[in-house]
Design a protein that fits this description.
6% strand, two-stranded antiparallel ribbon, mainly alpha, 17 helices, globular, 38% helix
Length: 514
């Protein structure tokens, strides 16, 4: 089930644009659609249309040139080496790998804009829903928007440690929004999520893709998991409590077929706690372009004719895979190979077309993907590629992939709980949680456990799902040397506030070091 209908979403976007422009522009034109825009905010029957924009912003969180890039391209899981004249982009991708970004970095700015847009859309929806008489449906929509707003605040707090924020009823836009520092935002998140969780519905009570009680509990667990980074004070027992609440709900189980979750028509899987819905039947205007940016130019298949030969993993990350079994199913799956020519998981060695022909580079050399990569002058075949989300070969929109994306899934919750248990001194409980996953992945169960084992396990289970930067910071590896990146200063654990944001909000102060 898809949340957003195109015509209704269009009306909402027109209305929201009008709201944002009315203070500085006199609009003389009437905009017509199926109904006049004002009816949307006067009729409670249109309440879903006031919720949709905040959900629609979620689709932009897995853009490789935006939020996903911030999560992955600065880590060992993903790098975008310069290949001849390709992928230089004024040094943007090299800066990500080397942690030398600046307040003018376009991807940092893009991610900031998307996240702040999400907060704003959630607030606007809450404001108009509050004008309707209270009802079970209206109250549920409001609490969902409060969850979405909290999710966007969580991202801003994690990336920048400063969050511009005004509440839904603060409507004097001539006053710049206040800015919560990291400790303030962390406490706001704990208070807000604790307050809304009892009012949220369970998985069976809402359509697929809507926020649930388990989603809010998982988000709260993530806040607690990273609380030591955010505030200097750890809270492992509350991580365990919230994760246990989700696990014991009985609504989610570890998938028996790992790769079924990542097919292009991926269903509402048993693991999905909070899912960002995509559909390649529509032009979404954003979202994941999962295969184009990594596959070699010559790996064409089906309707995919434009491939960009960019992103790959680092050798530092690849070397962690020597510490698990070759039988681990998360490393390789061949089910799409007869149609696409390549496998899911890691693409290593000689590559082939769908007809079995050995592929070559553009100069005729064998197309053999190798682990070593030169960041500033990589050959066409350097770097192991990743296909986590299977493409739809017959799509008519090769730049608008239809895979639903998991913001939260239950295996992550098990690993969060295991980490908190081990840090809290309970190795036996942590070992049980890690092995619950490894047994489903055909990996040999562990007999003992270290924090580094959990760090690696998160890398095996969750790679390219937008978790690595946060994990590396929490485990103390983010600023260490890796694959051409030297040791970097601790301040790079926060991104710079974009200069464009500093220019319009005097309450923001640039993060130290920038």
């Amino acid at each position: 089930m898809k949340i957003i209908k195109s015509s209704l979403l269009f009306k909402v976007m027109v209305l929201f644009a009008a709201i944002s422009l009315v203070s500085c522009t006199k609009l003389n034109e009437k905009v017509y659609d199926e109904v006049l825009d004002t009816s949307l905010i006067n009729d409670p029957a249109n309440a879903p249309g006031l919720v949709n924009p905040a959900y629609a912003t979620l689709r932009r969180l897995n853009e490789f040139w935006g939020v996903w890039g911030l999560q992955e391209a600065c880590t060992d899981e993903a790098m975008f080496p310069t290949r001849g004249t390709d992928w230089y982009d004024n040094g943007s991708w090299q800066a990500f790998h080397l942690h030398t970004w600046t307040p003018q970095h376009t991807i940092v700015g893009s991610a900031w804009d998307v996240i702040l847009q999400g907060i704003s859309r959630a607030n606007t929806g809450i404001y108009y829903l509050k004008q309707f008489p209270s009802s079970a449906d209206i109250d549920e929509y409001i609490v969902e928007l409060r969850f979405l707003r909290a999710y966007y605040v969580y991202l801003a707090n994690d990336f920048w440690g400063q969050t511009p924020f005004r509440d839904w009823d603060e409507t004097d836009y001539s006053i710049p929004p206040k800015v919560m520092n990291r400790k303030e935002a962390t406490q706001w998140l704990i208070t807000e999520l604790t307050e809304i969780i009892p009012s949220m519905k369970t998985k069976s009570q809402v359509p697929f893709g809507r926020a649930t009680k388990a989603a809010a509990q998982t988000l709260l667990a993530k806040v607690y998991l990273n609380q030591e980074v955010y505030t200097g004070t750890a809270d492992w027992p509350d991580v365990i409590t919230q994760c246990t609440n989700v696990i014991n709900s009985g609504d989610y189980t570890i998938a028996s077929d790992y790769w079924a979750q990542f097919q292009y028509n991926n269903p509402d899987t048993e693991e999905a706690i909070f899912t960002i819905i995509h559909n390649d039947n529509y032009d979404e205007g954003g979202g994941g372009v999962w295969v184009n940016f990594t596959l070699h130019y010559n790996q064409v298949f089906g309707n995919y004719t434009s491939l960009w030969n960019g992103g790959c993993i680092t050798k530092t990350y690849w070397d962690t895979w020597t510490k698990t079994d070759d039988a681990d199913v998360r490393k390789y799956d061949a089910r799409i190979k007869p149609v696409c020519g390549f496998n899911q998981g890691f693409l290593v060695g000689q590559q082939y077309g769908p007809d079995g022909t050995a592929l070559t580079t553009r100069d005729g050399s064998p197309l053999v993907f190798v682990p070593d990569v030169n960041l500033k002058n990589a050959s066409e075949a350097e770097g192991i590629r990743v296909i986590k989300f299977a493409p739809n070969p017959q799509t008519t929109r090769q730049f608008n992939e239809g895979n639903d994306f998991y913001a939260f899934r239950i295996s992550d919750v098990y690993l969060m709980r295991a980490e908190a248990e081990l840090r809290n001194g309970d190795e036996a409980a942590a070992l049980a949680d890690v092995n619950a996953i490894r047994e489903k992945r055909n990996a040999t169960p562990r007999t003992s456990l270290t924090l580094n084992d959990i760090y690696n396990e998160r890398g095996y289970e969750l790679y390219w799902e937008g978790k690595r930067r946060q994990d590396m910071i929490r485990f103390g590896t983010f600023n260490k040397a890796m694959s051409e990146k030297p040791v970097t200063p601790d301040y790079t654990s926060l991104f710079p506030i974009p200069q464009s944001a500093l220019d319009v909000n005097p309450n923001l102060v640039q993060n130290p070091g920038y």
